[in-house]
From TrEMBL, chains A, B:
Source organism phylogeny: Bacteria, Bacillati, Bacillota, Bacilli, Bacillales
Ranges for domain Peptidase M24: 163-371
Ranges where the Creatinase N-terminal domain occurs: 11-156
Protein name as annotated: M24 family metallopeptidase
């Protein structure tokens, strides 16, 4: 397990307090990050239905999942083995049986089917069909939306979680250095991606890396006009701008990092854009401290870059930490207009003020924690446009 | 794009035929593999809501997604740019606005909101909340479950798709060879995983690799009692059994492959289990040909291994090919009791008769296509228990 049992118990206690305040007696958790956060469960089994059941007046959670994954739950969680309940394999991707029917049956058997039951309505791993089957199977329950209930417990990290994110940052620095060093005219994009993956997963001599929740994003040339393209097996050309967004990951905790490289002298407009973004990024980091609202950081950004004429209409960043594919973000606080979240010590964000225009773009980002009086940036990596061909770089 | 426009048009036509037979006039596709299959769209943007809209009497699909991903849709799809409709960023992970409200508004604007509308109820990327918002936003529509409608179109592959899966198999062979060669007592699990990732993504000299939909699964020692654990930074010990399940991936098409390695002489029970699984696997492959039902392959397995006393209660395999995380399986045909799918040429399966017992397990698998009179196994890789320390291996 990644943490001692007492840390898991503290998390359960905080979750139960939120449940109580929202009138939820039984919480069905399908978000793999929330399952891991409360039980330690860690395996690539989230492609089938599984859940953790938190009952407000019971000591331990119940894990329900596919039969062949039950031993995985025994190995990775702090739960009593009798709280690990496997469902038979004919429930898997079947057109006649659904795992949520099994869940409803279990809740009936243990007398929890007439209570107020929270479900994560907006989670990748709780489909529309899951909800329909639960509604049908639990006619006497009061189903309530508990989206993000546990995610909000996750927002403030413990010191041990911060330590894990710092280890992830050591990996992110190595992976970014590897990426920037490998990008040259004539090199295939896939070979750069492969070296980044190698570095992410091997980690450092002292500790290994885990798989990040998002693969390296590596748009190049005109494709830098959009952030979420991966790589091809084409070769870089002289003049190409290349965006690298990646993360280090340690025991499912992330430190994302983005930088931009130009192969040869950048065009004036790429250079100008990089100056704007880096100035704005620096100003935002300077503004972070407890008591500030997320929307106030966005306002600092907007006022700092106003003179450039550039307008960024997408959010500047988001809370992150523990996660599984497809996203390392926590889906809670965002650094954007209208977000009234008040910054507190040990909140952790990825601040990524990328700008994507018609045929080019630029990204530079930092992951940080809020400290007692400011912020601590996790990765130590030069905050600049990197230019490849002997001009600068590290 | 991975295919010519005519292949995409053929796929759209087949999809419309299924829509017609199920009384669906408008199909909202949220499965990223189905989106890719019909439009070419390829980007790691599925962590926010996006969809492809197929209208039965319109020539082209409509792509709806996040603003910053619209340029990605322009780069990777065959769609007219006016059919690419971005939503503003304040719909992203917001507690006041939902992207499905935007989708409902668009359907109203184009006069499609009073029709029979299919949604993929059982898909990771169509949450319970998506459905609730669509129901509210489209009061005059008749919403129908269209789960797997496009997945079933995908079941029979074109020759070009088969060629992509063969390329994926070349990568899988290299990745498996790398993994088996790297596993030694004293080596960290993460370093083996890192080398596998490197090989998967760099691919071959002729073509690069794409990211598989599942990371390498590498349970070792007692953890081989369960299939879906990944890796740690601990070191392998002499005597450890190690399961490797991985895939090669080319342009989102997969060829999965599993093998098991023993560091030093295996115990008698591991050796015996490997003999059972490999005999059963061989018998199943021999039984594959057009006209046979999926459940008949399972029956061959059961009768072949009956004498061993081992019972496998989980499915033996599944249709697969094009996909995105978290699963490379297509969620259509399964090789198991009760599955009446009739095998046809160019159906493609991953046959993975893994056995996981109380404290050990064994996996060996093959990906294959059904041919005119039998089956063609994609990867050329010895089908055996690998024993590391000069005894055999390749």
């Amino acid at each position: 397990m990644s943490f001692g049992t007492s840390e898991y118990r503290t998390r359960i206690q905080k979750t139960k307090e939120r449940m109580a305040s929202e009138g939820i007696e039984v919480l069905l958790i399908t978000d793999p990050a929330n399952m891991n956060y409360l039980s330690g469960y860690d395996g690539w089994s989230f492609y089938v239905h599984q859940m953790l059941v938190i009952i407000i007046d019971e000591d331990q959670p119940i894990w329900i999942g596919r039969g062949q994954d039950a031993n995985g739950a025994k190995v990775t969680t702090w739960l009593y083995h009798e709280n690990i309940i496997p469902y038979p394999d004919d429930y898997v991707q079947s057109d006649t049986k659904h795992p949520m029917d099994f869940v409803a049956d279990i809740l009936k058997q243990i007398g929890q089917d007439k209570r107020s039951i929270g479900v994560e309505m907006e989670n990748y791993y709780f489909t529309a069909k899951c909800y329909e089957h639960l509604k049908k199977g639990l006619p006497n329950a009061k189903l309530k939306d508990a989206t993000l209930l546990v995610n909000w417990v996750r927002v403030i990290k413990s010191d041990e979680e911060i330590e894990y994110m710092k280890r992830a940052a050591r990996i992110a620095e190595k992976a970014m250095e590897t990426g920037i060093k490998s990008i040259e005219a004539g090199v295939r994009e896939c070979d750069v991606a492969a070296k980044i993956f190698y570095t992410q997963v091997s980690g450092t001599e002292k500790f290994g890396g885990d798989y990040p929740a998002i693969v390296p994003l590596l748009p190049s040339g005109e494709k830098t006009s959009t952030p979420h393209l991966t790589w091809t097996d084409e070769r870089y050309k002289a003049g190409d701008t290349v965006i690298l967004e990646l993360a280090g990951c340690y025991k499912r905790y992330h430190s994302p990092l983005a930088r931009t490289v130009n192969i040869g002298t950048p065009t004036d407009k790429v250079k100008a854009l990089s100056d704007v973004v880096i100035e704005g990024l620096n100003a935002c980091l300077d503004a972070v401290k407890p008591g500030v609202l997320c929307e106030e950081i966005e306002e600092v950004w907007r006022k700092t870059i106003e003179k450039s004429g550039i307008i960024k209409d997408s959010r500047l960043g988001y809370s992150m930490g523990l996660n599984y594919p497809p996203d390392w973000g926590e889906h809670t606080a965002s650094i954007r207009k209208g977000d009234k979240t008040i910054l507190e010590p040990n909140m952790t964000f990825h601040l990524i003020p990328g700008i994507w225009l018609d045929d080019y773009g630029f990204e530079a980002s930092e992951s940080f924690r809020v400290t007692e009086n400011g912020c601590e940036v996790f990765a130590k990596f030069p905050r600049q446009l990197f230019i490849k061909d002997g001009l600068l770089t590290n």
